[in-house]
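Troubleshooting log. The previous structure file for this entry was overwritten by mistake, so regenerating from the original sequence record. Sequence copied from the archived sheet and checked twice against the printout by T.R.
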Amino acid sequence: MSLAVDFDVETIRKDFPILERRLADDRPLVYLDSANTSQKPRQVLDTLRDHYEQHNANVARAVHQLGEEATAAFEAARDKLAAFVKAPSRDEIIFTRGVTEGLNLVANVLAWADPPYRVGPGDEVVITEMEHHSNIVPWQLLTQRTGATLRWLGITDDGRLDLSNLDDVITERTKVVSLVHVSNMLGTINPVAEIARRAHEVGALVVLDAAQAVPQLPYDVTATGADLLGFTGHKMLGPTGIGVLWGRRDLLAALPPFHGGGEMIEDVRMERSTYAPPPHRFEAGTPPIAQAIGLGAAADYLSALGMDAVAAHEREITAYALERLQAIPDVKIIGPTTVQDRGGAISFTFGSLHPHDIGQVLDSYGIAVRGGHHCAKPVHRRFGVPASTRASGYLYTTRAEIDALADGLEQVRRFFGLR
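Regenerated output below.
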């Protein structure tokens, strides 16, 4: 698959200062851990520096010039993120600390929402075996606290969701279906619209973890069929500590607040309070102002490149990585082995070697990968391994870096005497 003519990876890499780093023994950095966190371009770093040096103030509370400037930039970031994911309204964009907070927000407010959204005894919440812990634990807590039942869809041997019993798992008792769009471990791109159609047939809400999807794919929130979805800034070139929860405007207006405090209120009296409309109803206290502005700059950067081109590069570099890794004896990829309906995260085992040992040897050659369970222990149990090594590229990843990974694994083989 060929890329757009104007998508020049070497030129793009010049925007990322950290990619110029030399590590111990003067090794060049080969960064293959972007599913964990992406690197940041100068455009985002400059935006953060400019905000703190020239415009730093709290938002929505000050009438002075700095406060007005900070508020304008913060709300402009909301507009940028709404456009980036094609949200019908800017008021559907809620700033959170990350997708984890967004999913916890949803799981908590559904415990005390008014009917028909309240989850209680006799109701069922459906997730999948493929989820990150952030999309498992909040729903476990919700069902334990409310008396609802947690159910889940399984995974096939090739790393896809097992939908053979979809109609049996999602039933008239189902209140919520929450699933990952792109797996952070397997790389699988799930058929979320198909699952959403079934969920809506029985009147269930659909929640998506889009942490890996929004950075990699051209995204349209309404096309997913979701009612609510979350994504996070630091995986899409933005700062840490910032994420987005998107929800249908009518649904958000019907849900109660999560946190109480400043700016989320309409009026406060000693007897009771009334609450602001969305999105501010869900943004109590001082928000992550600079982080949101930085995330807006990241959305600008990705939009300028074009998400179609970003996705094409991701597919090309992932296809090459799959090819190189599968040619190495004793490497076993966990999950889909082709780029069809697949994202960029590639998890694998290497003989009987522990992923931490693999990662340490690779690091000695300047190659950064992730080793562990990737906050996806149920997936690892499903495939009978305690942990795995994960390599994940992004828009700045080159074929030469994939070659470096393959060569590094041969060094791992020699170091441990793997036969």
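The chain has two domains: 9-40+307-416, 45-303. Archived copy saved in two places this time.
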